[in-house]
Design brief:
Length: 448
């Protein structure tokens, strides 16, 4: 069947993706019945499946499949000294300006929109801004009953802080030797001056970070190794050279302790933007924590008897930004033969929230169809839908990216066969019920 797809990610309209996410319960504003809260988002039943699948795939690739990476899950509030040692308390800030005309607040480096209140008769379109002031992005909280400097704590601005502070214990208990990595997925918080572009820049978000500890002379080769691994991960999710690229940091973008950094960028409707950073952080982190905690974090190379502070190659990817990139890349509106249109999410089966939908041709066939759905549910997230005509039910599944629909019809009881319909090709195949799990597994788990 001929289709006309609008698949290039840059051509997708953000408002269509945002509207689909709200309409089908992927992602919506947190506290929306109270008018929402800027920079915070809730994931609904389909969104949480999508993001969980993404996290599971990252965990699988980064820790389970490797002998040399172990995982942790640490507290969101870590010892406040962690953030003094890392430099966040002193330096984790963005330059902020206020517009005297529209009274809004911006990041000084993100003044790319015309001022909505600028008086047209004066032919001024830009904001009339104050001088930039540094604004610290750490979100603060108080611990315990008293509110004084000693009770101030921070919600972590990145998940890696506690990877560094627990380095020694994790290395000893997991009996890992340098080089090895520690991985973690978790929430991070930044009091972003201007949250925008849906979930792209939020104040609460999830990161998946891996810190790889190696000899300081070997960061170059590990950097290349991890860059290749991370690109393989994104390609297996379905991104390609039309919507994914790497961008080395310019010398003036690099943090003072970073000798090399590259971003992996995705082509969003609002331009090329970072979804992941790969950084050669040198020995900065463990040196700082050695000094601030007064604990020796160096290691001994058993062969050469050399004692050294390990250096770190970091990979840091946003789970929300990547989920958004997946939705944008997958979104298509197609005109079918005969003039019908359909919305389809061409999500990789790795992340598709629903893997299979079971649809009885008639409500009268509900019992055996439900039995089949229950069988498939032992393995995958399965949707069962008997409401409406079959064409409409296919469209509902297309719109949320379900790769396969299985139809139980009036012949199925007799010949023990079902019709499997492919989301992308819209082709249909008759398959024996006995072979169904194997058939689906071959296709759904091909890239795992
Ligand atoms: P940006 O320059 O866009 O603010 P960053 O360079 O500060 O990002 P990192 O500190 O390298 O980002 O964080 C690693 C990853 O965490 C980013 O690639 C992104 O995917 C995610 N991330 C960072 N800030 C946010 C945010 N405010 N909202 C959602 N995801 C974020």
């Amino acid at each position: 069947m001929e289709t006309q797809a609008a698949s290039a990610s840059a051509a997708v309209r953000m408002e269509d993706v945002v509207s689909l996410c709200a309409r089908r319960g992927f992602i919506f504003q947190s506290g929306e019945i109270y008018g929402g809260i800027n920079g915070f988002w809730d994931y609904g039943p389909l969104g949480v499946e999508l993001k969980n699948n993404l996290k599971a795939f990252w965990w699988q690739r980064t820790t389970r499949e490797r002998e040399d990476v172990v995982g942790i899950d640490s507290a969101i509030i870590t010892h406040p000294r962690t953030w003094e040692a890392s430099g966040h308390v002193a330096n984790f800030s963005d330059p902020m300006v206020d517009c005297r005309t529209c009274k809004r607040r911006f990041r000084a480096d993100q003044l790319d929109q015309p001022c909505p209140e600028a008086p047209a008769q004066r032919q001024v379109t830009a904001c009339d801004t104050t001088d930039p002031r540094e604004f610290n992005l750490m979100l603060r909280t108080e611990i315990g009953a008293s509110e004084d400097a000693a009770s101030t704590a921070f919600l972590r601005a990145e998940t890696c802080g506690s990877i560094f502070t627990s380095f020694r214990r994790v290395r000893e208990t997991s009996r890992q030797k340098i080089p090895f990595g520690i991985a973690q997925i978790g929430k991070a918080f930044r009091n972003e001056i201007n949250p925008r572009n849906f979930t792209f820049r939020s104040r609460e978000f999830e990161q998946a970070e891996m810190e790889f500890f190696c000899h300081p002379d070997r960061t170059g080769e590990w950097f290349e190794h991890w860059k290749a691994e991370r690109l393989r991960f994104h390609h297996d999710l379905g991104f390609d050279e039309t919507n994914l690229r790497t961008r080395p940091h310019e010398a003036n973008e690099l943090a003072h302790y970073c000798s090399n950094a590259e971003d992996i960028e995705f082509l969003f409707p609002f331009g090329w933007q970072e979804i992941e950073g790969i950084h050669d952080r040198g020995t900065y982190d463990l040196t700082q924590h050695t000094e601030f905690a007064g604990k020796d974090l160096s290691v001994m190379d058993e062969e050469s008897k050399e004692r050294f502070v390990p250096a770190v190659v970091e990979t840091s990817v946003g789970m929300d930004r990547t989920s958004l990139a997946l939705l944008v890349a997958a979104y298509a509106e197609e005109t079918l033969e005969g003039g019908d249109t359909r919305n389809v999410l061409r999500l990789s089966p790795i992340v598709a929230p629903i893997k299979v939908a079971v649809l009885p041709l008639s409500k009268k066939l509900g019992e055996p169809a439900r039995r089949l759905a229950a069988e498939l549910r032992k393995r995958w997230n399965v949707s069962y839908d008997e409401a409406g005509n079959i064409g409409r039910r296919y469209r509902r599944q297309d719109e949320v990216g379900t790769p396969y629909c299985v139809t139980w019809d009036f012949e199925s009881e007799g010949d023990q066969k079902v019709t499997v319909r492919d989301r992308d090709a819209m082709s249909q195949e008759r398959i024996g019920v006995d072979h169904l799990v194997g058939w689906l597994r071959e296709r759904l788990e091909a890239h795992l």
